[in-house]
Amino acid sequence: MIEFIVSERCTACDRCVEVCPSNVFEPMEAGPPVIARQDDCQTCFMCELYCTADALYVGPNAYHAEPADPAAVIASGLLGQYRRDSGWDEWQDHYPNEQWLMETVFRRAAEAAR
After folding, report:
1. Which residues form the 4Fe-4S ferredoxin-type domain (predicted)?
2. What DSSP assignment string belongs to 18-83?
3. Over the stretch 27-49, which tens digit does the pLDDT of each residue have?
4. Host domain of residue 84
5. Reported pTM
6. For the chain, how many structural domains are there in total?
């Protein structure tokens, strides 16, 4: 579930607002969006994937909010981890993720089975 936005990192691009399927965020006229409907979060991580500033933290619990200490999360390096591990955007050449390339995976499995 979405836990917080690091306002110092946020560029106020509102991409998280645009991609959220649950309409969790509310855009602000000036500054970063706010988490207006946290309980509606589906923990789909779309906001994290599209946040190139790594300003969002989505906790792993999809059912309950688990408030986290922003300073501790920032220090841990967790911000942006899902995007990096998914091989998203600028990370695609460094950390390729074959989940997005399932055709390749199935083709290799078929070749191995022959």
Report:
1. 1-30, 31-61
2. HH-TT--EE--SSSS-EE--GGG-----HHHHH-TT--EEE-S-SSS-----HHHHHHHT-TTHHH
3. 999 999 999 999 999 999 999 98
4. 2-113
5. 0.74
6. 1
